[in-house]
Amino acid sequence: MSTPSSAELARTAVARARVAVLTTYPRNARSVLATVEVSDADGALLLRLPRHTLAAQTLERRPLGTVRLSPEGCETVTIQGAARRLQRADDQGLTHYRLDVGAVRVGERVGEPVDVDEYWAATADPLRDEAPAILDHLRHHHGADLTACVRAHGHTGVLWADPRRLDRYGLELSILDDAGANTLRLSFDRPVQSVAELSPGLAVLLRGPGGCGHRRAVQQPAEPDHRHQA
């Protein structure tokens, strides 16, 4: 497999999310939307919201909710399920609920349905916390190196490359070549658990600030490494 499955994308988004939009469903009334704090509970979602809000009161009467989340660098994920209160308000005045997963969709608007069993069997991407900073570092310091890397992989007509996604299976790029703007994925030889498992040339680039000698106040271009192997 060279790309994450929909289930893996969903688990990764849930693991990275800190806030989300919660929809609750009062009886004989319009649905109620609220922004809530969220965290991952081994695939389920922990919700934290003020006890006296309409959304919390609705969950008490009808414990059904839909959570829509879209953390940085992840797909938009929609999860529906039953909610149950775990405790009364904490020191910050927030009541905690657990939303058990009943249905999952990945993508904007309606989204693509994800089999719930596959969702539970999947795991979040191990590079999820490092990826945003690494991609930003590549974008600002290693544009020429990425272009050289892509050309070394046989895409000799590429004029420009911009990193879009990094995950256990590979690096996804937006490229510009003779045919126009396209998307290209450089797949790793095998799924990785950390950037240290990659070939030396690519690992140096993907370690981010400090790993290749760059610091925030220093912006010196690195020499292109034509030996990168993804």
Topology at a glance:
Layout: H1 6-16, E1 19-24, E2 32-41, E3 44-50, H2 54-61, E4 64-69, E5 77-87, E6 94-99, E7 103-106, E8 112-114, H3 116-121, H4 131-141, H5 143-152, E9 160-167, E10 170-177, E11 180-187, H6 200-206
Antiparallel strand pairs: 1-2, 1-4, 2-3, 3-6, 4-5, 5-6, 5-7, 7-8, 9-10, 10-11
Summarize the entry for a quick read:
With 230 residues, this protein is α+β, with helices and mostly antiparallel strands.
What would the keywords be for this entry?
230 residues; alpha+beta; three-stranded antiparallel β-sheet; 23% helix; disordered C terminus
Description:
The structure is a single chain. The protein has about 230 residues and is an alpha+beta fold. About 25% of the residues lie in helices and about 35% in strands. The chain contains 6 helices and 11 strands. It has helices at about 5-15, 55-60, 115-120, 130-140, 145-150, 200-205; strands spanning about 20-25, 30-40, 45-50, 65-70, 75-85, 95-100, 105, 110-115, 160-165, 170-175, 180-185. It has a 6-stranded antiparallel barrel. A hairpin with a 7-residue loop joins strand 4 (about 65-70) and strand 5 (about 75-85). Residues about 215-230 have low confidence and may be disordered.
